[in-house]
């Protein structure tokens, strides 16, 4: 199950699990759409491709909320 990290690792923008606009690599490094574009959709941590992160809503979100640990180190 995806961790659904709460923020962009590059700029700190909030990325709630139910919202569109988050991009992840295969290691779940997480970036907002603006940063993913600036990074040419390539993860700066592992070099992997950044892809759209799916959303989590409704009952699934209630039972499996997103992570709360922020990764931005601004």
From TrEMBL:
A Pfam family: DUF1272
Which InterPro entries does the entry link to? Answer: DUF1272
Residue ranges, compositional bias (Basic residues): 61-74
Give the protein's recorded name: DUF1272 domain-containing protein
Q: What is the lineage of its organism?
A: Bacteria, Pseudomonadati, Pseudomonadota, Alphaproteobacteria, Sphingomonadales
Start and end residues of each stretch annotated as Disordered = 47-74
Which residue stretches does the UniProt record annotate as biased composition, category Basic and acidic residues? 50-60
